[in-house]
Amino acid sequence: MAKANGGLRGAAQLLRRALGPMDTAVFDFWAREFGSLASRERVLARVIAKRDESARAVTLELQPNKRFQGFSAGQHVNLTVEIDGRRHTRSYSLTGTPRADGRVSLTVQKVEGGLVSTHLFAEIQVGDIVELGSAFGEMTLPEVLPGRLLFLAAGSGITPLMSLTRELDRRGMPVETTLIYWARHRADLCFLPELRALAAREPNFKLRIALTGDAVTGSDELRGRPSAELFADAVPELANQTAYACGPAGFVQQIENLVKPVARSFQSEAFTPPTFEPVVGTQTVTLMLAKSNRVLTVKTGEPLLAALEAQGVKPKYGCRMGICNTCACGKREGLTRNLKNGGDSADPEANLRICISSAQSDLTLDL
Fold first, then answer.
1. Which of 174, 262, 298, 312 has the largest count of CB atoms under 10 Å?
2. Any idea what DSSP says for residue 83?
């Protein structure tokens, strides 16, 4: 009898494991149908407020469920939203600071032709539910702050730096901090009233608005793109600064060339996918997709994500910049190259970020 009972318990355990994913999906479906954020596995969040932040940007305030594990100022999350029956995921910076009630905010700038940013800017409403990933990103403040901080932002690159600025404000602005914020037009600037109010009440916070299109009118404004002359005027003691830069890839590269050789330390993030120089004499190799049992031919100098999409394969992705790891998958065999740093890897157990990796030999992926 004991043996029989043991067999029944084993069978029951197998049945629970087999039905577990189905039970979770059914639970999540009905929770959503009743407007609940409850989920057995996913981080769901309700839009509780939406406000205009500039002519092309909105801020969404979200209330996540209890599965959200929190974040540090300066980090990102992957946000998934359903549009016309299909799920789409993009990476956005959190613009607030950690709160006791768990609420988070993110600011989305509408991108011309951008499906998700346009939806979030124009269509999403208070009460709608989105899905969030875990927070990620290393452009955060250290526990022990350096002597002086320099924040350099352009476009949507203001978002993580705004989070860092708010965190410093929460701490009482303990170190001298300068923010230089570039935009073509004044109407494109986010958070301007808040930033100017902060600069007016906090002697340790200095704000400079750099305009490349509109004429300068305010005392805190200057005109021009990043240059050695601009930094000499706006940041006379650049060598004593710990610099953070964020914005489009071209802006970040220009800032790096100007600031990194001089500043005490330098950290940056680019908000546009990198472009890779084509490899001269590109060869073709065989790519085996082990899970779907497909065999493709790809070029050795092409990002694997782009190569797969061109042949009708649609892997998950988020930032397309090698940061968020949404596109990461297992590699069983083959030689790959990291297109950002040029490093090659033959590790058969590598967790490969396919948005910034190319095949250098025949390759097998867990896709």
1. 298
2. E
pLDDT value for 279? 59
SS3 139: coil
Say if residues 127 and 46 touch (Cβ distance below 8 Å).
yes
- Return the ∠ at Cα 164 (arms to 159 and 166), rounded to 5°: 95
CA-nearest of 244, 196, 255 to 220 is 196
CB atoms within 10 A of CB 278: 9
Taking the C-alpha atoms of residue 329 and residue 288, their distance in angstroms, rounded to an integer, is: 13
Neighbouring-strand partners of residue 247: 270
DSSP H helices, 34-156, are: 115-118
Angle of helix 158-170 relative to helix 192-201, nearest 10 degrees, comes to 30
**At CA 66, angle to CA 64 and CA 69, rounded to 5?**
85
Query: 131: which residues sit within 8 A by CB, 6+ positions away?
Result: 42, 43, 44, 45, 79, 80, 81
* Residue 46 binned pLDDT confidence (cut-offs 50, 70, 90): very high
Closest CA to 57 of 12, 120, 143: 120
What band does 39 get if pLDDT is binned at 50, 70 and 90?
low
pLDDT > 60? residue 7: no
Pull the structure tokens for residue 67. 């599965």
d(CA 58, CA 164) in angstroms, rounded, equals 19
Closest CA to 360 of 336, 342, 341: 336
Q: Give bridge partners of residue 344 from the DSSP assignment.
A: 337
Classify residue 349 by its DSSP letter: T
pLDDT of residue 35: 56
Distance CA 352, CA 264 (A): 33
Handedness of CA 229, 232, 238, 242 (dihedral sign): negative
Note the pLDDT tens digit of each residue in 255-307. Answer: 999 999 999 999 999 876 666 665 555 688 999 898 888 999 998 888 999 88
Strands 351-353 and 205-211: unpaired
Task: Tell which residue, 233, 173, 229, 248, has the closest CA to residue 203.
Answer: 173
